[in-house]
Amino acid sequence: MSESSAPRRRTAEHPEGGAGAGRWVHPLSAGLGAPPDVIGGKAHGLVLLHRLGLPVPPGFVIGTDACRAFLRDGRFPPGLGTELATAVAGLEAATGRVFGGPERPLVVSVRSGGGVSMPGMMSTVLNVGLTGAATAGLAAETADPEFALDSRLRFLSGFAAALAGPGGRALTVAGADREIHGLREAREAERTAGTGTAGKTGETREIQAIREGATRSTSTGPGLGPVGLVAAAHRLESAIREGMGAPVPDDAPGQLEAAVAAVFSSWGTPRARTYRELHGIPHGSGTAVTVQAMVFGNRDGRSGSGVAFSRDPNTGEEVPFGEVLFGGQGEDVVSGGCPTRPLRELADREPTVWAGLLEALRRIEEHERDACYVEFTFEAGGLWLLQTRPGRFTGAAAVRVAVDLAEAGRIGRDEAVLRVSPHQLSRVRTPRIVVDGAEPVLVRGLGAAPGVATGRVATTADRAVRMAAWGPVILVRPETSPLDLHGLAAAEGVVTARGGPSGHAAVVARSMGKPAVVGAAGLTVDVAAACVRAGGHIVPEGTVIALDGTGGEVVVGEPRVVTPAADARLHRLLAWADGFAGRPPGGGPADGTWAGRLAAAQAVLRRG
Length: 608
Known about the structure:
By secondary structure, the chain is α+β, with helices and mostly antiparallel strands. β21 (531-534) and β22 form a beta hairpin. α4 (132-142) runs antiparallel to α5 (145-162), α14 (395-407) runs antiparallel to α15 and α20 (568-581) crosses α21 (594-607). The protein is globular. It is an enzyme of class 2 (transferase). InterPro entries: ATP_grasp_subdomain_1, PEP-util_enz_mobile_dom, PEP_util_AS, Phosphohistidine_dom_sf, PPDK_AMP/ATP-bd, Pyruvate_phosphate_dikinase.
């Protein structure tokens, strides 16, 4: 068995990876002091992880100023190409690998990172540098052709998705989504025999050699096997070539430059612009691009990816919360397209990874004095952290976290009052559906964003926007993607058949304060027939349904709804607010609403 393909841990000889800072490119290291508006929120979080001594893949970041120059001029600014080459050389030295090389190839991820987090709205390309030669080299190094080819196919998939233009039009890669979804399903079934693709246009000699060698192998394990993966990759390359009018670059620097340009361009997509408008983010700031050595969550049975909160984002309870996908990469988790497992399963399957993750969450929360969110990957039992930021919480959870941290002495009562927004306070009492048989339960899923929403079924984002002009709608989808953002914005709530509580639909719904139910097994969305099916029931589009984003129930009709009384933590927070505002507890001559009492205290505190 060869050594892991994961990056080296930092050593005295290779302390951080990358090279010295240039005009456009900065090394990711504990010494990088640039603010998020310069290096992006993702890189800023990675710098924090470095300072805490936590395991982070080496890399570098291209600043937001390069993006602004690219969007203004339509090309890389002068010197960026040279700085990229220098930074890659530093990354090669740090990892002991060669970018695009036939032996010990260096493979990188290319991720966006605005100054303010915009989850899923911009492009990511993983496995950049897997040329034909590098794929063959990875297969030889790991003695696992299926892993190498699976990684190559994932690169092509991400590359195709990233090449959607600013108008949001996907390339003519009609087969791309079908290929990826088909592979997901195939990996859950037994390996099926494939047919050769030798001699087809676009297949490199190296890929052909892997395929021919794999044909003679009988130890490729479950899934499509290398032969089927080569065939799928060939079809996807052909679709990309048709859409681009040129083949996928088969040189690693060319792949990297194309990926960086695609991430820059994704700042201008309609979904990204819509998200910024919804959240008050300036359009002119641009995105940074973070480049890091790949950690392969799809490496083997002891690898995977996941997301974790230090506290439950729905309740604020001090328990780790999240999900994990064994044998998958990070994009599989956040897309909602792959079945994930509860985070706690890590404790049984990979106790060392679990222990390391708990320690990381504890140290980040202790340092930041706030609940946190992390994205992580583990390869062959080794944990790596890929991102951290503050957790996004619902109203009740925000109150609980602020009060609990204050009572634990980690923040002051004044800071606790300032941390809860009036908008969050308006959603602190979470309504619940009363399931008493009066209205039939259509399906049950995972409550991903608390609250109750009622409206007419819409099965596409575009239909949700049109139907919302005539009354409330509920967006019901197999899964959501960033392309559905306008529909999520128009809907009162969202239901998905797939995905977990940390996937795209859940994260965006929570950020918008909209109830969501995800992972509703047994739910089928038939867009062509304009209906949804579950439990033997057919529900036409336009039918009124209700969802409970706490309990996960979806019911037909308008059920009875109850709203619980405010809990003790809310009363404590409001009492603190009244004290800072100089008001008698629970009232006074000014606005006596909860939001009014909080706003009065915050105004006093901000005046100093």
